[in-house]
Amino acid sequence: MSTPDPALEQLRSAAAEPSPQTWFQLAQGLVARQAMEEAHDWHRRAADAGFAPAQIELARMQLHGVGTERNVEEAVAWLLRAEATGHPVAAYMLALVSVGGVAAPHDARINQRVMQALNAGMAPALRAAAIHFGRKANAQDQQRCLQLLDHAAQRGDWVAALLLSERLARGEGCAADRDAAGRLRARLEAGGIAPLPALSVEDIATRSTAGTLLLEDGLQAPLARAVSERPRVAVIDGLLSADECRLLIAAARPMLHRSLAIDERTGEASAMQIRTSSDASFDPLVEDLSLRLVQQRMASAAGMELVQAEHLVVLAYEPGQEYRPHRDYRSPESLRDDVPEAGNRARTICVYLNEPEAGGETAFPVSGVTVEPQAGRAVVFDNLLADGSPDVDSLHAGLPVQHGEKWLATLWLRERGYRAY
């Protein structure tokens, strides 16, 4: 026998009236109680009546297949309807979807939509814009970065506050202000948020337009330095900025768990001694615009599209931890239940997010190439040959960390589209 829920019953009673707002409130109450299918139905009822917040929430459910079948095309249509009313959240979500360039075009409207969200004071948009301006060398753009991080932090964005504290402490884009950084860090630590590992990125590989929010700057593919022909391995220095490295570490830390490895014979994932790190995988449900833009640059640098990428994985290694020699391409068994139509992992891009005190190199035993960790540096390598068959020479290893900690971001890119948007 279910326990009576007076608050929910009150919402149901109110929803008996022909009011889209009360229908939406009931839907939100049902979401809070994990009654997703019924929530979807009430959101749709309010959305059909033209209530923009319901259109946005209905689109969110359709994007991720929550309470209904995934329908990205219909989700985008609902967001466009809500955007037409001037709703900034709809504009922000359309910008986020359009990063992939499939469900919505990646064109100049993405900048207009982010600006609309900025003007409305949306913290995720403020942080994304701050990180964008932080990649520009212009002093005024660096000042914009700091101001936007501060605005986002004031709106409760703890990641932005963490990035701001690092910049203030290290004098990045400003004169160092250790007192202000200390006060900010104290508030963060009181909330259980620890400081980030020390890191710096000297030169960012980017071409950007000073003073302007042009997210398409992130699509410019930086120059890659080939270090091996078989397997094909290239290195890109300064792919990610210090802000972007810190963003990934900060976002991953609360979700870390013991890394798993896939058994090639069974296709099942389990904890194995071959891989002793911890990691966090970013489901699209938890991605925001900042995370999407970083992944877009990683995919672009690898010569691939973001929709070909599996979920972003951020790995953390402590002293003694490693990933012994392995290959990234997957067995037919392991692909069977994981979007098999996307094909195998054609290419991998890894980006070091910091530099451990010693160890943690990426080694390719066949070619004898070893790449040293450096914050912002990417390693790109092929897992398949030109004919699509597995390249056994793509064997590689994450060597043991000797001192300090190592953080690494990885995208595995399939032969064809893997993501819905």
Automatic annotation (TrEMBL):
Cofactor(s) required for function per UniProt: L-ascorbate
SUPFAM superfamilies: HCP-like (SSF81901)
Keyword ATP-binding: no
Highest taxon of source: Bacteria
Coiled-coil segments: none
Record-annotated Fe2OG dioxygenase domain positions: 308-415
UniProt keyword list: Dioxygenase, Endoplasmic reticulum, Glycoprotein, Iron, Metal-binding, Oxidoreductase, Vitamin C
Pfam families: 2OG-FeII_Oxy_3
PROSITE patterns from the UniProt entry: FE2OG_OXY (PS51471)
Keyword NAD in record: no
Protein name: 2OG-Fe(II) oxygenase
Organism the protein comes from: Lysobacter yangpyeongensis
Lineage, top ranks: Bacteria, Pseudomonadati, Pseudomonadota, Gammaproteobacteria, Lysobacterales
